[in-house]
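User: tokens in, sequence out, please.
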């Protein structure tokens, strides 16, 4: 009996067991009905929650604008390695290209997102479900009715998302959001003003966009993708920071920070989200644009991702849905040389 015939015979035998067809157990689930109701050998879905990205808003935190509001004066610190400078550079990406170049060693000005929020996010809840409205006719003589779809599935409504963050020493997350919403209120009152191009175009500068990427268990491929439309935070638990209880020496209210975002519209499982995600990355880092990244950047190999943790710019491959990470070729070469030297020292 030749090998192919043996394999065919074994596969037919395996189909009668809980293992199913050894070569196509997953395919059989799609192809035909399990009329013998044998336990399925197909593993359950093991997607991880993945990553959540918050795009940087475009607040006008230039010195002249900051001086208009008394509570913003600490942002004028000359200390580059300070929480105030981090917050200022996070919320106003234009500072790095201004005449004064307000840089910060802890802020990557070519990053379209705020890593502090992504890295410390504990939960992000409140995403709306797509729901169809329907029309049902009036009952007839025999109470017969019929129903039909009577709406679009697109989500254009406003809703709230609650994002909870793990706080860290220095309380930077609460300070960041307090600055963010204070700026929006000051613009409303006319105390502070947006950058001129925002006023000319009648655009809101304190909006962000939240991207959700659900990844496979290896955190390599995008399984699901969704995003909000425009969104902005509208509250910050500042009051709880001043609660006092003599029975407990530490204020547990500072451990987690829950922020509510007002969001307008939502989009799920649409390939255009990937292109918009990649375009946002390219706006802040021109070398990551579609026409540039292949020649100017180095894709980090999967086996070297741990070496470049907390480094790199994301890109979703539109053909394979792989979440790729890139660094400049110079950074890649320097880091790999240092890593190889370190591993060589450990092995010697």
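Assistant: Sequence out:
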């Amino acid at each position: 009996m030749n090998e192919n015939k043996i394999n065919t015979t074994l596969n037919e035998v395996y189909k009668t067991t809980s293992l199913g067809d050894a070569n196509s157990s997953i395919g059989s689930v799609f192809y035909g009905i399990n009329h013998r109701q044998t336990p399925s050998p197909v593993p359950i879905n093991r997607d991880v929650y993945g990553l959540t990205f918050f795009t940087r808003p475009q607040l006008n935190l230039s010195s002249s604008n900051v001086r208009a509001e008394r509570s913003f004066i600490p942002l004028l610190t000359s200390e580059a390695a300070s929480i105030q400078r981090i917050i200022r550079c996070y919320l106003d990406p234009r500072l790095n290209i201004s005449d004064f170049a307000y840089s910060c060693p802890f802020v990557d000005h070519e990053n379209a997102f705020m890593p502090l929020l992504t890295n410390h996010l504990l939960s992000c809840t409140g995403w709306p479900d797509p729901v169809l409205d329907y029309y049902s006719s009036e009952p007839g003589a025999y109470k017969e009715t019929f129903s039909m779809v009577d709406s679009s599935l697109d989500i254009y409504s406003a809703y709230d998302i609650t994002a909870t963050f793990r706080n860290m020493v220095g309380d930077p997350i609460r300070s960041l959001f307090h600055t963010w919403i204070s700026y929006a209120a000051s613009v409303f009152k006319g105390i502070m003003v947006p950058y001129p191009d925002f006023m000319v175009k009648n655009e809101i500068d304190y909006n962000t966009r939240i991207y959700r990427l659900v990844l496979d268990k290896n955190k390599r491929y995008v399984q699901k993708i969704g995003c909000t439309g425009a969104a902005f935070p509208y509250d910050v638990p500042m009051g709880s920071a001043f609660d006092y209880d003599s029975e407990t020496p530490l204020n547990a209210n500072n451990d987690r920070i829950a922020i509510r975002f007002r969001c307008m519209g939502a989009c799920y499982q649409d390939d255009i989200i990937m292109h918009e995600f990649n375009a946002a990355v390219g706006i802040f880092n021109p070398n990551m644009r579609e026409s540039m990244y292949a020649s100017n950047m180095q894709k980090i190999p999967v086996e070297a991702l741990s070496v470049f943790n907390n480094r790199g710019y994301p890109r979703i491959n539109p053909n394979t849905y792989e979440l790729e990470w890139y660094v400049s070729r110079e950074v890649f070469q320097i880091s790999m040389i240092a890593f190889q030297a370190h591993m060589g020292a450990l092995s010697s």
